[in-house]
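Async update (no meeting this week)

Hi team, since we skipped the sync, here's where things stand on the single-chain job. The sequence we agreed to prioritize is pasted below, unchanged from the tracker. I ran it this morning and attached the output directly underneath so nobody has to dig for it. Comments welcome in thread, and please keep replies under the output.
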Amino acid sequence: MDYSIIIPAYNEAEQLPPTLSAVRTSMAASVLQGECIVVDNNSSDSTAETARLHGADLVVFEPFNQIARARNAGAQASKGRYLVFIDADTRITPTILLQALHLLSNGQCVGGGAVVHFEGEVSAIGQFGIKFWEFLSISTQTAAGSFLFCLQEAYQSVGGFDERLFASEEIRLSKQLKRWGRRNNKMCFKILTDTPVLTSARKLHWYSGPEMLGWVIFMLFVPISVRSRKLCGFWYKRPNDASATR
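Output:
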């Protein structure tokens, strides 16, 4: 198997159909052999059934609600030499998948990510936030969790996503992959800028601008908070949902 696309999902029956449709369209554009894995992260809705009906090659169950564990569970079940992680509300395109696979197959790149844009209308706070992240992502070569690709070998060597973290696990993995790449034939870690991935702006509708800014400021000044699910509530709680999720 050449590559594996891994999608963690908790109660994502609504989001998975368009996401998987985009994945299958993108996979059809490549001559490489790939698989699509959805990780049902202990959902209470029809996430698993929806995934099977809409194109997942494999559905894996992870009982503990944590994005790092869900992604690692998908990687553990994968057979691909290359790994592509996307979120359940992120739509990829053939262009961006082909670019990522080309970089991984040319032997000069350990992994990377892409700039991210929101779907639909976005508030001023949302526009500022996505532009600020885009600046940080490109300037520091750090991938967003909504789209991260890497060599399976490198992923396994650094231990995958850090399961001690309930947020920013993709930032830590980006750093580890960059170090691994430098030690191994000076491979690069590249953020794709030509074609963005599209992701849902639903959190912008769930939370107010002051709430989101307050959370970001808190995380910046109390970085140890990423080790607490409770303190990472912005990522793990949805309106009218008492369960912890992301």
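Quick observations from my side:
The chain has one domain: 3-236.
The longest strand covers residues 188-199.
Reply here if anything looks off.
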